[in-house]
Each structure stands twice: as C-alpha cells, then as structure tokens.
Design brief:
Layout lengths: L1 H28 L6 E13 L7 E6 L6 E2 L4 E5 L2 H26 L3 H31 L7 H30 L3 H26 L2 E3 L4 E6 L6 E2 L6 E16 L11 E5 L7 E9 L4 E2 L13 E9 L11 E7 L14 E2 L2
Antiparallel strand pairs: 1-8, 1-13, 2-4, 2-7, 3-6, 4-5, 6-8, 8-12, 9-10, 9-13, 10-12, 10-14, 11-12
Helix pairs in contact: 2-5, 3-4
Length: about 350
C-alpha cells in the first residue's frame, strides 16, 4: 500500500516537472503578442513612354499591347530615306578629306622627288652653258667679233636660264621637305569636322529606330504606321517589370517599429497560398493623410508614412494595382536587403 502511494506521488511529481518544463520552453520560444505588423496596400511599378528622338512618319510598329519586351528590342521604325541619304553624303565627304590628309601626311612620293631633281639638273646644265656663252661674248666684244646686241642676248639667256634653274631647285627642296605643317593641320581639322558630321548623321539615322529602354510589358500602343512622330509624342507605354513593390502605409505611432531593410512577406487574394519574399526598401521622409481608397472614413485624417516593400521573384504573377497584404516580423535580426535563393515559396 505504501509502495503504491510512493509510486503515485512520484508520477505526480514527474508530471508536474514535465508540465512546468514544457510551459517554460513554450514561454521562452513563443512569439510575443503584437510582434508582427500587417499592412494592406497594392502592387506598384514604374512606367516609361519611349518616343523617337527625331521627326518623321512611322513605317512599322513591331509589338502590340500585352507583348513582353526585352531591353534593346526593336519597337518601331521611322521613314529613313532622308537620313540615309544624308549619311551617305557625309561619309563620302569624310572619305575625300581623309584621302587629302593622308596625301599630305605621306609627303612627296620618291618618283616626284626624282622628277624634281632631274628637272633641276637639266636646268642647271642650261644655265651653266648660257653662263659660258655670256662670258665668251664679253671677251669677244672688245675685238669687234661680238656686237653689243650679242652681249645683251647672251646675258638675257643666262639670266632666264638662271631663274629657271632656281625655280627648279626650290621645287626640288619643297619635294624633299614635303607639305607644310600648317597645311597638314588644316587638312586634319577639316577631316575631323567631316568625321563629326558622319557621327551626327549616323546618330540621326539610328534615331529612326526605337528600342525598348528596359524589360517590361507593353501597356498601350499610342501611334500606328503612317502617324507623324516627334520627340514630344510617346509611341508606347511600357510597364517595367523590375523593380516591383507593394505600396502600403504605416501609421505615425507605429513608424518606429519598422526600418529600412527589414524582411517581409507578401500575399495576394489572386494566388492563395503563394508567399512572395521581399524587404522594406523605402520609407517616406514626409507624412501624408491616409489615402481614402484604402482606409475607413474614421482614419482618413490620420497621418501615415508611405513604405514600399520590394518583392523578389514574383514569377510574373503580380500585376499593377493588385491588392496585397504585407507581413513584417518585428523581432527579426538585422539583415542586408536584397533577393536570396528562396525569394518566392509556397507555405
């Protein structure tokens, strides 16, 4: 009997110890009440409206509404007839000036130098011969063998041949020295101006093609083939798929509980059971009145701060304006913001 009582007491003590230990463990590891904040907002993205950088008639529109486009993808084209002709003209002029500059830089050809030297040598021989004739005429003049007219003719021939020889000698010197530095600089400047004109013409020709500025989805096709385009007229409206965030609002008295970089999870009614991971990437520095479209009339005058929860790996499931619910664990350890390997999951 005594043994049974002792056994029963031991069982009671053991049960009490076990229950106490379980309660202590649960108390230490339980999530405190109010440790998670819930925000309600909607999905937001950025939009771009690309336009041609020049004027002209639209000849082709390559994509339609709903098309998924990649950065650099051709979207539309303009009539490029005038721009192609201007480019061809600029390139031809640049080639001509480049050839002129090259000719000056290369200097005289060996054949030209040899030709100038041969001319100089021939004219030197003529000059030397005329010099001898003139000297002989001067010696014969006192003896009456040569007249004054003969002397004058010999002197004229000598002077003429001397001038011809001097001109040939200077031509030979110029052929050896090559073009002047000033002429080369002028030709180089002219070619550089022509090359700049080619670059401008190429840029204008390239502007007849419109390319996607980033990855996205075409939301609106504004122009059609035959329309006149200009830099002030958008051609498409494209919704950018990255970055994508949920815009929500935090009350002023709760602002101190959240901080930039905090991890968050996002859910939507459209995809029950899908959990998207993200982080708080923006907190508004200024307050505003609560948007009337997302809060009750009693809270319309309350001051709130906008926050943005950037979402990773949405698997193309989130759409602009889609209502979303954001959960933020207030007890999380500080971590660096960004996308990890498990940025979208199912619970």
């Amino acid at each position: 009997m005594i043994a049974r009582r002792r056994l029963a007491a031991a069982v009671v003590v053991a049960a009490a110890v076990g229950t106490g230990g379980w309660l202590l463990y649960r108390h230490l590891h339980a999530t405190p009440e109010g440790s998670t904040m819930v925000f309600y907002g909607d999905v937001d993205i950025r939009e771009v409206r690309p336009a041609f950088n020049d004027n002209g008639a639209v000849t082709a529109m390559q994509v339609v509404e709903g098309s998924v486009v990649k950065k650099g993808e051709l979207l539309a084209t303009l009539d490029d007839t005038r721009y192609a002709a201007r480019l061809a003209q600029a390139r031809a002029q640049a080639r001509s000036l480049k050839a002129t500059l090259k000719k000056l830089l290369d200097g005289s050809r060996p054949e030209e130098i040899a030709q100038a030297k041969a001319t100089m040598t021939a004219l030197r021989a003529i000059y030397e011969k005329n010099q001898v004739v003139y000297a002989r005429t001067l010696r014969l003049l006192p003896h009456g063998i040569a007249s004054v007219e003969d002397r004058d003719n010999a002197r004229a021939q000598r002077d003429s041949s001397r001038n011809d020889f001097e001109a040939a000698r200077q031509a030979y010197i110029l052929a050896v020295k090559g073009p002047r530095v000033e002429d080369i600089d002028a030709a180089r400047t002219a070619y550089q101006a022509a090359a700049a004109n080619v670059a401008l013409a190429e840029r204008e020709y390239a502007d007849t093609r419109l390319y996607a500025p980033a990855d996205g989805v075409v939301e609106d096709r504004i122009l059609e083939p035959g329309d006149m385009a200009s830099p002030a007229t958008p051609v498409y409206t494209i919704g950018l798929t990255q970055p994508l965030w949920v815009r929500a609002y935090v009350p002023e008295d709760q602002l101190g509980k959240v901080r930039l970089g905090m991890a968050a999870t996002v859910t939507t009614d459209s995809y029950p059971g899908h959990v998207y991971r993200g982080w708080i990437g923006y907190l508004s520095p200024t307050s505003e009145f609560t948007p009337k479209t997302v809060e009750t009339p009693e809270l319309r005058t309350a001051l709130v701060y906008q926050l943005r929860v950037y979402v990773c790996n949405t698997r193309d499931e989130l759409r602009l304006g889609m209502p979303a619910t954001v959960h933020v664990d207030l007890n999380q350890a500080p971590t660096a913001p960004g996308c990890g390997p498990a940025d979208a999951s199912r619970p």
